[in-house]
Specification:
Helices cover about 25% and strands about 15% of the residues. It is an alpha+beta fold.
């Protein structure tokens, strides 16, 4: 995956449907494609961020500390501000 996207082309919906495989190849090469309807941009076709799924439950265990005061009830004035 490319970290910097190349400026892409604007294609209409018909072209996007007709040439989807070609457009996907361009996206895989780092290009961003804008799909437009009647000349108005409506969507961006970009490469999927593969690194988003690398999160692991408990990865910050032992690195964060939550003070006991966090679990105490909020003062009435602050609670009222949240409820309004």
């Amino acid at each position: 995956m490319s970290s910097a996207r190349k400026p892409g082309a604007i294609v209409n919906v018909h072209e996007a449907k007709t040439h989807l495989s070609r457009l996907l190849a361009r996206v895989e090469a780092g290009e961003e494609i804008v799909i437009a309807r009647n000349g108005r941009p409506v969507a961006r076709l970009v490469e999927h961020d593969r690194h988003r799924g690398d999160r692991r439950f408990g990865a910050l265990q032992g690195r964060l500390v939550v003070d006991d005061a966090f679990f105490e009830p909020l003062p009435d004035a602050e609670l009222a501000a949240w409820e309004s």
